[in-house]
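From the pipeline queue, job 12 of 40. The input is one protein chain; the requested action is below.

Action: predict structure.
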Amino acid sequence: MQTTIKQVSPVEYELEITATADDLAPELNKALKAQQKQTQMKGFRMGKVPLTIVKKRFGEALAYGIADRSIQETFNDEVLQNEDYEVLGQPVITKLDYEMDSDLHAVVQFGVRPDVELQDLSEAEVTKIVHDVTDEEVDEEIDRLLRDNADLMPVEDEAVGDEDLIVFDLQELDAETRTPIIGKRDEDNEMFLDDPRVEDNLMLSALADAVKGKNLGDTVRFSFEHDKAHDDHDEGHSHAHHFEATIKEIKRRDLPELDDEFVEDLTNGQIEDVETFRAEVRKQIENAWAQRSREVLEGTIMERVMDLHPVDVPNSVIEIYLDSFVEDVKRRNDGDLPENFPVEAFRNANRDEAEKQARWMLIRDKVVEDAELEVTDEDRTAFFQKEADKDGRISADQMQQFYQAMPQLQEQLEQRLLSQRVFDHLSGQMNVVEKDRETFERELEEREAAAQAE
């Protein structure tokens, strides 16, 4: 048997295997004799079927099994046992030329861990949001909680207001004749006119404008333009849609009183007075901003670090991430892919994101190695205490026991805490620029506008 290893990219190699029929003959004969001993066939005693018949019936399958095993054993001996290669992901047989009693020629492609040389980060700038929660934000959040817990009271003698909920039937109309299109009617739809999502939806925002000021039982007509610049056809044109809506119900919020009784009921007795409730709301908003600040910081750290480290990523590692994306779709659909799910199109569409995540993983591993980072008991204890404080119904020890009882969850936690270690280490080496909420959001809008213009 002859082998050759050829480098085809900085992180990809090919193992070429050639074996003659004589090389494989001993294993094939051994397999045929083993098969002969357990073969039953009419006219012959157990184990006495002629070897020529056994070979004719089972030889091809046995030969392919031997070829597959030979390839695996050769890959193990020549690559996995070779300290020159740190293989990542699964090797792929890209070529197999073999038939029984003939020579074997196979090519196995495999990826290896790239050499990552960490760069100086002292000149790299990253953003951290610093935000002081205002009384106005606390009031707005409490107002939202009041609206969410309000009773909806029917309105019969007043027009639709800006914050009302309407129940309506929706009928699409023909663009030319303005007559109803059969099969294009939806009944008993509901919509709060002050729902933030309404403004972002062309049809719903047009409907909201049309019904405001109207009365119960009124039918209104409205239209909106759908920009088709990004469609496959009619590029650069818009298409008008026409509808009529009938208002079947109008409901208005009857806000509860912000008092101790409301607070106690909302928090299931955990908070008993308004002042403590306001303090808790402020704390939750502060925690949310702290989380957002960390996410923004970690996101910019990833971007800057990957910009400075254009690491080659083995295809085998990208495939691992794509596999995980597909598995995530299954998990969100009760363990199965949706019917007619376009797997290959999905993988192609997500390939760039998979490569990005794989590249970060390779850099992250190098940071962990060079800085000798590890998760400590103090890290775990702090995490369990933080989660227990947020939940309020379970102790830190109980939280820890829950994680320890689920090995997969425990491993996810270890990686999560290790990533925090990595980000803390990297931020300590970088130029962290603090920006207030308004500045950050303005600059974000400017970058998004510039990207959209391009």
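Job complete. Residues 229-236 have pLDDT under 50 and may be disordered.
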